[in-house]
Fold each of these.
Amino acid sequence: MTNLGSDVHEIDTLMSGHTGITAGYAILGEHPALIETGTAKSAPVVRDALAALGVGPEDLRTIVVTHIHLDHAGGVGDLAAMFPNAEIVVHASGARHLVDPTRLMSSARRVFGSLMDDVFGPLLPTEARRVRAVEDVGSIDLGGGRRLETHHTPGHARHHVGLIDNVTGDLYVGDAAGLYIPSDDPDQPGDVRPGTPPPDFDLPLALNSLEKFRTLRPTRLLFSHYGPVRDVTDTLARAEEEVRLWVELVRDARTSRLDLDHAIEMVREKTAARYPVETANEETQTKFEELSSFASNIVGINMYLNKADGWEHPMADAASAG
Ligand SMILES: [Zn+2]
C-alpha cells in the first residue's frame, strides 16, 4: 500500500502475483470507498489491505469499478460479500453482467482459456439491489462534501467511466488513457502505452474520452495500470499520440495485408524507442506484455478498422488480461 495523500491509498492487487501492474484505490474519510477490485483472485489481498487501513467489513460504503474487465471488476462479487454495506457502482451497460456474470464469464473463458483460472478466477454474482448503475454522469458521496463524479468515457470499453474527486481534482482514468508504466527514477517520466483490446476499442470514442478528461481539469491522474501521475497535460497528450500512432500502424499493416505475427513485428519495430522504461527491464516488459499484449491491442484496432474502413482484414484472435 502507498499513501498518496488526501486520504487516498494505492493498493497493489498483486495480479498474477506481479507487483506494480494493477492498482485499486481506497479513499478513506466519512464514507470509505474502493475504486477497482482487481481480479477475483486478488479479493483477499484487497480485503487485507483495507483492514490494514482500518476499513472493517461494515465500514466500506462504495465499491466502484471503471469498467467490467476482469482485471478491474473480477473481485466485485467476492468483495461485495466481504463488505455487506457497500453499494456497487458501475456504468449502466456493465451492471447486468455483475448481477449475472454467466455470459461475461463464458466469453472470457473462450478468450482466455487456461489463463482464466490462473490469472482471474471466477467473477461471482452480486445481488441486483446492491448494484447502482450510472449513465452519462453520476455521483458518489464520500461524506463531508467530498464526492466522486463519474463520467462515461468509452473507447477502451463501452462500459468505461472515469472518476473525478471534487475536492482534490484526482482523476481515476481506468484504462481510458492507456497504461502508464512508471520509472524507478523519479526524474524519468514513465511510458504511456495504448490499451486497445477487442471487442470494443473505438478510436473516435477514445479520443472524445481523452478530451473529456482534459475538460475536467484534473490535478493528478491515477492509472489502474499503474499509479499516480502529476504531469497531467503531457501524459494525456501522450496517450492521444500513442493511440493515434497505433491505429495508423495497424492501418498500414492492413494495407500491406500483414498477418498478425508480421503486424506485431512491424509495430514493435516502429515503436521500439517509445517505451524506454518498459524495455529497459525484462521483468517489467514480460509482466506488462502479459497484461496488455501487442497482439491483443493490434487485434482490437484491426477489429475497429474492419468497421471504420468498411473492409475486413482477417487477423487471428489474441487475448491479454487487461
Ligand atoms: Zn485493465
Note: The chain has two domains: 2-239, 241-308.
Amino acid sequence: MRCVKLLFLCATLAAAADNDAPRRLAARALGETPLWTDLRALCDGIGGRPTGSPAAQRSVEWAVKTFRAAGLTSVTVEPFKIPQLWLPGTAEASALSPVQFPIRLAAAPFTASTHGALEANLVDVGEGSEQDFARAGARARGAIVLVRSKEMKSFDDLFAEYLRNDALISSARKAGAAALLLQSTRPRGLLYRHPMGLDGALVPLPAAVVSREHAERLSRLAEAGDVRLRLNLQNQTGGEYESQNVVAEIRGREKPEEIVLIGAHLDSWDLGTGAEDNGVNVAMILDVARGFQELGIVPRRTIRFALFTGEEQGMWGSRRYVERHRAELDNFVATVTFDTGSGRLSGFYLNGREDLRAPVNAALAPLSGFTASDHLIDALDGTDNFDFLLSGVPNLVGVQDPIPYLPDYHAESDTFDRVNQREQKITTAIASALVWSLAESPQRLRRQSRQEVEKLLIDTKLDQQMKAFGQWSDFTAGQRGLFQ
Ligand SMILES: [Zn+2]
C-alpha cells in the first residue's frame, strides 16, 4: 500500500516541475563526466576546423554522433549557405637583403593571395595612420607595407585591432601597397588569425600577421637602409558554399512549441585546435544535454542545443538559423550563448534586457555556493546571440574572465592544455540550472518589437559598433533583424 502510494506520488512529481532538478543537474555536472574526453576528441582528434574545411565537416559528424551517444533522439543537421569561401593555404616569407632570414607569418583571413611569390621593398608605416601613410608617400607604391602594433592586453585592445582594419586597408590601397604585414600583438613569436573583414567579403589586398620579434627586426633594418622581402601567400578562395549547424533537442513536456536555446560555435580557426574558442563550450553544451538525458529531466518547454558553424566567418550559422526559424521566433523564450573559453563565469550579458536580470538570478538561486550574478546590461555584437538580439529574442551571453581565453585568441596556442577545467565544470553546472529554469518557469520573457530593438541598440550604443562594422544599414534596410 505504501509502495503504491509512493509510486503514485512519484508519477505526480515527474509530471510536474522537478524543483530539485537544478541541484541534481549541477551535482552531476561537477562529478565525473565525459566533458574532457569530448573536448580532447574535438581538439586533438579533429583539430582546428575553419568552416568550409574537411576538419569542419568532420566536427559536424562528430557532434551528431556525440549527441546521439548521449541519448538524444532528435538530432538534426541544418545546411545553410555562406557567400564566400576563404581557407588558408601557403604562407611563406623571407628577408632577402640586407640579410637573409625566414619570417614567421600567418595569412589574415578574407584577404587576397599574392600573384605567385612577390618580391618588393619593405616600407615601415608605423601604426599605419593616415599621416603615417602620407609620410611614406610614393615609397609605399608596390611595396610590402609593415604596420606596427601595440601589445594586446585587454578586450579593448583586441577590439581596437579590429576597428583599425577598414582604415588600414583603404590607406594601403590608396597608397598602392602590394601587401600588408601586420605586426603580431602577442610576443614570443606567437601567430594568430586576424580576420581583416567581418562580413565574410574578400579584401582585395594580400595581408598577414608577422611575428612580433621579426617585425621589430625588420623595422630596425628598414631604419638603416633598404630591406627586400619575398612574400608568398596563397589562400583558397571561392564563391558561395554550404556549411551546417548541428541542433539537438529535448522536447518540453507541456509546451513543446516554446523553446530555450543554448548555443556555441563548433567551428574555429586553424593554427591552434580551437579549445578556448570555442571547443570547451561545445563540449559543455553536449554535457548539459547529456545531464538532462541521464537524469531523465524533461522541463515544461523544449531545450534546443545548437552548435553553429560559420561563426568566425561573420556569425553565418546563427544568422541563417534565425532566418530558417523565422516563423518560430515568437516561441523562443530565451537564448544562452557561451563564447569566451573557460574563464570564471561571473554573470551574463543581458544584451540591453533589464527584464532578464531577475529570471537569471532566480534560476541560479538554488545553486548555493556558486554565484554568477555580476550581470552586464551591455549588448554584444560579435558572437551567435547577435541575430537573435536583432530579432527581439531575449538573449544572454556568459561574462567570463578574459584568462585563459584572451592571450590565445585565434592563436597557435589555443589548445586543450589551456583550458581551466575547474571553472568549466562550474560553468556547466550553472548553464544546466539556468536552461532548466528558463524552460520550466511559469512566466516567460517577451519578444521585443522592431521599434524596441532599435531603441535598445541606440541606448546600449551598439548602433555605433554596427555602423563601424557595416551592419547598421542591413538592420535599417530590414535585411537583418527579422519581424513578422
Ligand atoms: Zn568564438
Note: Confidence is low (pLDDT under 50) at residues 1-15.
Amino acid sequence: MPKTVVVTGANSGIGLAMAHELAARGATVCLACRNQAKAEAAREEIARRTPGAKVDVLSLDLSSFEHIHRFATDLAARHERVDALINNAGASPLKQQFTAEGFELQFGANYLGPFLLTHLLLPQLRLAAEQTGDARIVHVASVAHNIGRIDADTFRGRSKYRPFPAYAQSKLANLMFNYALARRLPDGLSTHAMHPGGVDSDIYRELPRAVHAALRPFLISADRAGRLGAELALSPEYRERSGEYLTAQRPNPVSRRARDVAAQEALYAESAVLAGVEPLPRR
Ligand SMILES: NC(=O)c1ccc[n+]([C@@H]2O[C@H](COP(=O)([O-])OP(=O)(O)OC[C@H]3O[C@@H](n4cnc5c(N)ncnc54)[C@H](OP(=O)(O)O)[C@@H]3O)[C@@H](O)[C@H]2O)c1
C-alpha cells in the first residue's frame, strides 16, 4: 500500500533531503512548511529529480498553536491516513524570540509545537497502524542534547539568553519525548529519534562566516541525514525498534539526563498541560 509521510521543515536542508528520498521510494510526501515560496520551489525540485513524485504542500508554523491546529485540520481533510510523521523542523536564532503563546522560540517551536502536532495527528497515524500494522513517528533530535538541561524556569524565556543552551534543551526534550512516547503508543505505531549528524545546512546561517568556514570540513551532506530519516520512516528494519535513537554520524552518546525515566515522565506530563492535549496513558 502506498505510504503517506508528513515532513515538517521540508523546504530546505535535512527535511528537503528526506522528502527527496521518500519521494524516490514511492511515498506521497506532504511538505509541512512555514515558507510557502520555498515549499513550492521544493515541490518543483522534487518533481524534477523524481518524475511522477506525489508531493503535497501544506502551511505549518510551529511557533503558533493556532497555526498547528489549523494545519492538522487541513491535513485531515486531504489525507485520511498518515503512515509517518517526521518532526524535522527546527531553528536556532542567535537572539531570543518567542512563540505566539509566549514560549522561548527554541523550546516552543523545536519541541512544544512538534509535541502538540504529534498528538493532533494521532488519529491518522492510528488509522495507518490499524490498516497496515506499521505507522511511525520520527523526531530529529541532536547530539547537542548532551549539554541540554530541562529547566521549566526558561520555558518562557531566559534573562540571559544564550542560543546554544536553549537549542540543547529543545533537542534534549525531543529525545525525552521519544522515550516517553514509546511507552504509550499502541502496537503498530512506533517512535524513533535520530541525530542527523553535523549537516551542512542553513541552520548555521546566523553564525559568523569564519566560524561557519571552520566548521564546514566536519559537516556531512544533508542527503546522508535524509537517507536515515527516510529509512526510519519506511524501512522494515526499524519497524520493531520503537524508542531507539540512531545517528547518521558517530559518535552519538545518549546523556544520562535523556535516559532518566522519571524526568521523561515529568516533562511529558508538563508538556501535555502546556500544549493543551490529553496525555496518553502508559501501556
Ligand atoms: N544541521 C545540523 O548540523 C543539525 C544537527 C543536529 C540536528 N539538526 C536538526 O535538524 C533539523 C533540520 O535542520 P536543518 O539543518 O535542515 O536546518 P535548515 O535547513 O535551517 O531547516 C530547518 C527547517 O525548519 C523550518 N522551520 C524553522 N522554524 C519553523 C517554524 N517555526 N515552523 C515551521 N518550520 C520551521 C525551516 O523553515 P523556513 O525555511 O521557513 O525557515 C526549515 O525548513 C532541525 O530540527 C535541527 O535542529 C541539524
Note: The domain at 4-275 is CATH 3.40.50.720 (Rossmann fold).
